[in-house]
Amino acid sequence: QQPVQSPQAVILREGEDAVINCSSSKALYSVHWYRQKHGEAPVFLMILLKGGEQKGHDKISASFNEKKQQSSLYLTASQLSYSGTYFCGTEDGATNKLIFGTGTLLAVQP
Amino acid sequence: SAVISQKPSRDICQRGTSLTIQCQVDSQVTMMFWYRQQPGQSLTLIATANQGSEATYESGFVIDKFPISRPNLTFSTLTVSNMSPEDSSIYLCSVEAVHESTEAFFGQGTRLTVV
Q1: How many of the other CB atoms lie within 10 Å of CB of B44?
Q2: Which residue does chain B place closest to A98, by CA atoms?
Q3: Nearest 5°: phi and psi at B86?
């Protein structure tokens, strides 16, 4: 089952914050976050492992709630370069398959 | 890390024909994955390709339509057979690093248009 992301799309002004949510109907082994710009391959942002702590780098961080089978990506003080489509990916621990969420289109305007 | 060379980068094909997409990795990897991304959509896993065994296909994808080869630990091909306009998509190969739960690496994708 494909993880569901919300919102589907969000428009921000530079400097504003955003939260993207990822919800799965299956127990999660780990959660990946990727950003994809138009015409390019997805680019890795971070991984959150079961039992791990909230992670982040620069102004992008994420949390992982195993019990709720949810993860959230936090973007603070957004920059123009943050524009793109964000995907969460849930990993099957037995097969290492990565199933991508429905996606969230983020547009940052000047 | 892993560097993946995928080709062709794009192609325009006639309906009813087949296209083979190649994926070459600069290091040995156990599993390779093939995804399809339709315009404006998420990535959908087609199959997992293991060296020395038949590929494992996801629901909705069959070997006759998407035959996969995995002759060694650095190379895989995906063939899109008997194409129709509905097959127009971006196809991406992907690998994970040797150790589990690390990032997935992607080829640059093959943009396929079927006319």
Answers
A1: 17
A2: B45
A3: -65, -15
Residue pointed to by tokens 């794009």? B10
pLDDT tens string A55-94: 666 789 998 888 888 999 999 999 999 999 999 999 877 7
Coil, strand, or helix at residue A78?
A: coil
Give the burial class of A109: count Cβ atoms within 10 A of its Cβ; 0-12 exposed, 13-18 middle, 19 or more buried: exposed
Element (H, E) at B77: strand B75-80
The answer to whether A56 faces chain B, any CB pair under 8 Å, is no
pLDDT digits (tens, 9 = 90+) for B84-114: 999 999 999 999 865 555 788 999 999 999 9
- Is there a cis peptide before residue A7, judged by omega within 30 degrees of 0? yes
In angstroms, the separation between the Cα of residue B106 and the nearest Cα of chain A is 6
Q: Are strands A60-65 and A55-57 parallel, antiparallel or unpaired?
A: antiparallel
- CA-nearest residue to B50 within chain A is A95
Least Cα distance to A90 among A50, A40, A41 occurs for: A50
Does the beta carbon of B102 lie under 8 angstroms from any beta carbon of chain A? yes
How open is the CA angle B20-B24-B30, to the nearest 5 degrees? 110
Cβ distance of B101 and A87 shorter than 8 Å: no
Option in B33, B45, B103 nearest A44 (CB): B103
